[in-house]
Amino acid sequence: MIQLTVNGKTENLDVSPEMPLLWAIRDTLGLTGTKFGCGVAQCGACVVHLNGEAVRSCVTKMSRAEGKNVVTIEGLSENNDHPAQKAWQEIDVPQCGYCHSGQIMSAAVLLRENPNPTDQDIDDAMAGNICRCGTYPRIRKAIQLASQMQEKSRI
Amino acid sequence: MTKNNNVDTTRRNFLKLTGLGGAALCLGFYFPADGVPTLVRPSELSESDIELCPWIIINPSGKVTIVNHRAEMGQGSYHSVPQIVAEELEVDMKDINVIFAIGNEKKYGGQVTGGSSTIRSSYKNLLKLSATAREMLIAAAAAKWNVSVADCYAESGHVIHKPSGKKAHYGELAVAASKLSAPKEPKLKKISEYKLIRKPLKRIDTPLKTNGSLIFGLDKRIPGMLFASVERDPRYFGKVKSFDASKALKVPGVKRVFKVNMGYYEYIREGVAVIADSTWAALEGRKALKVEWDTSSFKHWSTPEIFETQNKLLKTQEGMPLKTQGNPTEILSKKTKKLDVVYQTPYQSHVAMEPINCIAHYKKDSIEIWGPIQAPGWIQDDISKQFKIDKEKVIVNMTFLGGGFGRKAMIDYPSEAVGISKILGGPVQVVWTREDDATLGPFRPGISYRCEGTIADGKIEALKFRMAGQNNDHWRGGSKTEPNRSTSEGFLKPYYESIKNLSISDVLFETTIPTSFWRSVYASTNGFAYESFIDEMAYEAGKDPMKFRREHLQEERCQKLIDKMEEVSGWKNRSKNEGFGVAITECFNSTVGHVVKVSKNLHGGVKIDKVWAVMDCGWYVNPDIIHAQVEGSIVMGLGAATTHQITFKDNVVEQHNFYDYPLPRINEIPPIEVYIIDNEEDAGGVGEPGLPPFAPALTNAIFDLTGKRIRTLPFKLSEV
Amino acid sequence: MIQKGTNSKLMSTKTKIILIAVILVSTIGLAFTVSMHRITEKEYIGITPIKKDSVASVAAFKQVYKVLMSPRCLNCHPKGDIPLQGDNSVVHTMQPKRGKDGKGVYAMKCANCHQPENSPGLQTPPGNPEWHLPPADMKMVFEGKTAHELAKQLVNPELNGHKDLEKLIAHADDGLVKAGWNPGKGRTVPPLTHAQFKKAWITWLQTGAYAPAK
Predict the structure, then answer these.
(1) pTM here?
(2) Which residue of B72, B77, B211, B408 to mutate against A (max A Cβ within 10 Å)?
(3) Domain B217-297+356-431 CATH (choose: 3.40.120.10, 3.40.47.10, 3.30.365.10, 3.30.379.10)
(4) Is the ipTM of this complex over 0.90?
(5) What is the pLDDT of residues B1-46, one digit of tens each?
(6) Most A CBs within 10 Å, among C8, C108, C117, to test the A interface
(7) Could you say which of A61, A64, A113 has the minimum Cβ distance to residue C106?
């Protein structure tokens, strides 16, 4: 049994410590919002927060996740209203949408650590997430908008 | 248990309308489990529900459900089809429910989501049937209230009697309306009257894509479903000589290992499937599997040989003419001053973000399939033949697609999944790894083009294009004695008017490497060769390349497109040391022009400063979706031009995953501006036509800046 | 970039003091290096070597240099702020940035992909619990350095992470250094074994840490 917290809930999973966190999340817990894209930490579709960091769950073994706090896209906010989610909706960022769970999870870490990111900061944070549909110009706009929304909500 | 589409017709409450080009409109009603919009499929309706109509379902509570008959892979059909219907039906987008149709081409007409065809092939029909439904609902209300139809109007899902203010929602009128006869010529709105169409409405599927709730093929789960990973021949058509499953079967969770076949049109591709109780177990089991292949029965190609052969053929063969006018060959043979060059484009993989996957359940009397599917009808045809079952008993459910780009219009992966389910006797999801997805094809074919031309009086006197590349149709049994019908794809038709001596021919070239559609298909490669060569001819003629195109494209829409391109890019005011390139291509009835500006990079090579795109797609639905599609096409075109290529060694792909088939990332994307030409012409495609002009506009810009003509893709921006 | 300008205006007094301190230390370090350079080309560390032997020392460093310039060491000691990767030492895909502490930035921290151990398979991220680049204030660049330059840098406490001889010797057994010899499938190991490297390293240091002429 491997114990970890997923989206605020304690889970005891009877899986191999070698199993990537991605497959435990998707197949064992049935949380399919986290995506399989490449399996080798190249595309970022599988990004989840592990103790707050944007890890690639396809290469993160259960042994590393044990005892830690995992947040997936389903748990990022209760009402689909994290500033990144709201900005993604406002700008209509997604096309197919497959990569955007990972994009949003990466953007959330950026916005937490740097509430006013520059274009360079966005590049530095987001270059690990591939989008085949090519929504990058809108991802950039949405992060800028999320930053403004975040700032407004603080005032 | 899931119900199929063979619902007992006696329980249907529908009315067939005539005069709608074969498509029937049925006003029916059904009762969703709860009042909130949910994503359901017709085949998931419960026993008490009544099976409905092709596109519009009205519930007694007033809830309107609109059926999207096409695949949603990012291009926006899930939003655009309802946006059309809602306009003429007079319902609000926020109040509607949208569901995917299952494969049923008798009911919906063509459902193959390819060729950027969803809107252009169905908008007229959708407008008319929606207006028909609206008029019938109004008529039902007028009859109910015993008032004049002329005094009633529809708005936001209600019919309103203007003089009295009486109001009824569509749910109260649907049953009565369904018993009326349909008006033959319902009154359609003028473009200027549209409230929804041509407005940049926010996509209704976006919120589902920001919280992980949207179900792609890979996310679909069926009770009792197992998972499969398949080791397939990396040379495509080898036979399993032997396999050793002993280690694979020891992997915890692995249930069975067996040989499977995958139908690829008229061919069979063999594989060994590892079945397990989780995706990971199936993948681990497969790693432990050993398979020996017999690949002795077909030729193995390597990339250098492919292009050398194409070049040799282009030197010696005239090919099969698709288009000939005047006598370009004779003119070219007499002239000493002429251009004669070869362009080359690489094989490409699709690598949609969602790797190929498919769920199949082979039952005794039916076969049900769920997955990211672009072409449900083709799958029904193929499975019906392969497994000897009536087409109607092959139920194909389209999930959302995590990208398609043509790959998911193939019939191979569902065929394999059904084969596995049949052996297994239960539902199974076959999961392709990224490596499977990138390396096993089919690919966009790598093509060489010989382009020859002469100039007289500052204009093109003779032009001759020959293409040597694989014809995708051959895999589907297409004739080898006729030219590839797509040889001219991408090339603007108005050139046929101005270039009196012109020929476009296809030189037969074949390999054992499977090829198929890739976003914008042959326009993506033709466009590079043809529009680069037009640029070469412009310089040969000593003309500004934009002006040269303007002179050769004497057609009103082209002239307006060029006006717009010049205006937005500041073409005429560009300074001499700036690199500006232009290219215009036609694809799926839309014309798109790009202007690219490049400059020298301080660290060597060139960088792209800006891209301007102008799209003329005629009648359109949602300008924001068009912007998004063109932006995305440019990003995809950037990767195809500058970073990725599939190469082969003895028929085996040398790339594997994103580390050696790198896609553009956010830090590599230039600023992009997109403009739409407003007119009332017939609708053209949107999802693909934005891609082909990018590569030639870029390389033409590089020539403008550096004098270096790039004729082979891909090339590295840093090494120019 | 605009952001950075704004930040500097808003710089707290505390930050200013730290900045001044850093500048002072750097200047002192530079002065120290320069003065040492003037006095002698040979000694850089204030600890008496066991036995001075310039010939043996330079010979040992040449071995050390081969290892340090191998992709396994070089890739994480780049000139710029982006690590290199692969046996051909190309700029790391997706261009992860060093960050202040050398552990990456935002959603691109090293450990987001690089696990405590090598990931299984070819072309997967190699791993180590300490995976990082040198920090921003002590970049310890190897890329592009001659043997002479690198030897001098390695024994200069202001450029080597404030390591004295003892710490330098101990560094041969550092977990991340040793990870170079367990690089994950498909990557070449340095040209010497770890034992050979360690021996050459210590020999170089203990015979006077002489820098080769070039």
Answers:
(1) 0.91
(2) B211
(3) 3.30.365.10
(4) yes
(5) 233 233 222 223 233 322 222 222 333 332 222 222 222 333 333 3
(6) C108
(7) A113
Q: Coil, strand or helix: which one is B257?
A: strand
Q: For C54-98, write each residue's pLDDT tens digit.
A: 999 999 999 999 999 999 999 999 999 999 999 999 999 999 999
**What pLDDT, in 10s, does the model give residues A66-77?**
999 999 999 999
Residues of B in contact with C95 (CB under 8 A): 665, 667
Q: Which of 1.10.10.10, 3.30.1360.20, 3.30.365.10, 3.90.1640.10 is the CATH number of B9-209?
A: 3.30.365.10
Give me the sign of the Cα torsion angle B595, B600, B605, B609: negative
Delimit the domains of chain B by residue range.
9-209, 217-297+356-431, 317-347+443-719
Q: Which residue of chain B is at minimal alpha-carbon distance from C85?
A: B659
> In the B/C pair of chains, how many CB contacts fall below 8 A?
10
Residue among B688, B682, B685, B689 nearest B127 (CA):
B682
Burial A53-84 (b: 16+ CB within 10 A, else e): bbbbbbbbbbebbeebebbbbbbbbeebebbb
CATH number of the domain at B317-347+443-719, please?
3.30.365.10
Q: Which domain holds residue A138?
A: 83-154
Q: Quick check: bond before B321 cis, omega within 30?
A: no
C-alpha distance from A153 to closest chain B C-alpha (Å): 20
Q: Inspect the interface and report whether the beta carbons of B354 and A98 lie closer than 8 Å.
A: yes
Q: What is the mean pLDDT of residues B527-539?
A: 98
Contact with chain B for residue C123, Cβ under 8 A = yes
If asked whether residues A91 and A44 sit together in one domain, one would say no
Q: Rounded CA gap, B146 and B487, in Å?
A: 62
Integer Cα distance of C40 and C53 in angstroms: 15
**Which of A56, A64, A109 comes nearest C113 by C-beta?**
A56
Q: Quick one: DSSP state of residue B709?
A: P
